[in-house]
Write a structure and sequence with these properties.
The protein is α/β, with parallel strands linked by helices. The chain contains twelve helices and nine strands. It folds into two domains: 162 residues, Rossmann fold (3-Layer(aba) Sandwich); 211 residues, Dehydroquinate synthase-like - alpha domain (Dehydroquinate synthase-like, alpha domain), CATH 1.20.1090. The strands form two sheets. Strands 1-2-9-6-5-3-4 form a seven-stranded parallel sheet, covered by helices on one side.
Length: 389
């Protein structure tokens, strides 16, 4: 345990699947937060700064070994980042622990990066405890920040951004509705499918993605619709973690880029956008890696990969389907009746996706107009013509 923060790959495993990848020490267990103080002590870390999403404090009235600083991660990113930098500078800190969703994780990573670069501070180990199923980039050493004023994306990439430890504990999953949890489980499935588009068959990433899909099939319904099923929630959190490890090794695909950037541009939730774009983009995603997708269909005893996806997603979504928009056009704010995704959002997102530079797009195969067409098909709800795939 004393080697925990010295580049070793240490995994503590209790009643769960586990995997070691990328030099990240991972704790995957029921009640993992209870071990937090012991883990820090073993690594000779005595001055942690613990940041907690203020919206989930009620879930953790017991079990936190340190008094947290409460952060509202729903605030504007610049405000959150400045608040974190201020906390880091106020006292001696030898580790940063963040308990929040993917947006909060990204904000904290940027704040830590800016703080260490600005004052040339020694490297501060980062510990991430995700609070949502869709913290699917928690293991990454990259962050993409969208500036609404300049309409640009800043790419942060540095080993400082990669967590030294990821703790998976279902107790911190926020109490969202069955619809939101169902959307999140299907968003994990969509992310795994997107990752498989450019993952070699029988590679370690392939088997991680396959394990993630298997977990979603076995535990996805219960995790979404049975609020007291701790085991299922833990398994789906682990499936999300597996996806983050796959992405650690591979560039993201076009589906992930479209979902993530439209989420940043429009403010619409990532899981909802993935649920709309996944069926619309499926023919594009499945093109080019037939061996891999056929093997997965065989694994799930399906006649095709399309049938596999239906087998995975339909049971999870069936009871909440009437509440879910099926077109981008249909995403409307309940209070103002305003359309939350506009054609100008699509145009801006298409430009940013095409010039992303960190996804698997080859200009001779897909150009910016193609991406606009893909978005427009999902916006209006029509199928992509074969010549567009």
């Amino acid at each position: 345990m004393s080697e925990l923060f010295k580049g070793g790959e240490i995994v503590i495993h209790e009643r769960n699947f586990t995997i070691t990848k990328g030099g990240i020490a991972s704790v995957v267990s029921f009640g993992a937060i209870d071990y937090l103080q012991g883990l820090l002590s073993s690594a000779n870390l005595a001055h942690p700064l613990l940041l907690l999403d203020s919206h989930i404090l009620h879930l953790l009235q017991k079990g936190l070994p340190f008094t947290p600083a409460l952060i509202d991660f729903n605030e504007q990113s610049e405000k959150v980042e400045n608040e974190i930098e201020t906390l880091l500078s106020k006292k001696k800190v030898d580790s940063l622990i963040i308990i929040c969703n993917q947006n909060g994780i990204d904000y904290a990573k940027i704040a830590l990066y800016n703080f260490t670069k600005k004052i040339k501070h020694p490297h501060i180990p980062l510990i991430v405890i995700p609070t949502s199923y869709t913290a699917v980039n928690s293991a990454s050493d990259e962050v993409f920040f969208y500036n609404r004023d300049s309409h640009t994306i800043t790419h942060y990439s540095d080993p400082l951004l990669q967590p030294h430890m990821i703790i998976i504990d279902e107790r911190v999953v926020s109490n969202s509705s069955a619809k939101e949890k169902a959307l999140s489980v299907v968003a994990i499935i969509g992310g795994l499918i997107d990752a498989l588009h450019h993952t070699p068959y029988a590679s370690s990433e392939y088997f991680m993605a396959l394990e993630g899909l298997s977990l979603c099939k076995e535990y996805g319904y219960q995790a979404a619709h049975s609020p007291h099923d701790s085991e299922s929630r833990q398994k789906i959190l682990f499936a999300s973690y597996l996806l983050s490890l796959v992405r650690l090794q591979k560039k993201g695909g076009i589906l992930e880029a479209m979902v993530d950037i439209l989420h940043k541009v429009s403010g619409v939730s990532y899981p909802l956008l993935m649920n709309i774009l996944l069926p619309s983009m499926l023919d594009v995603v499945l093109k080019g890696n037939k061996e891999c997708f056929d093997a997965i269909a065989t694994h799930f005893n399906s006649s095709s990969f399309i049938e596999t996806i239906q087998t995975l997603t339909n049971p999870i979504l069936e009871s909440v389907a009437p509440q879910i928009p099926h077109r981008l056009y249909d995403i409307i704010d309940n209070d103002s009746n305003r359309h939350l995704v506009t054609l100008s959002d699509i145009e801006e997102a298409s430009r940013l996706v095409f010039h992303h530079g960190h996804i698997s797009i080859h200009p001779s195969i897909i150009d910016e107009q193609d991406i606009i067409r893909y978005f427009e098909a999902a916006f209006w709800g029509y199928s992509l013509p074969k010549e567009w795939v």
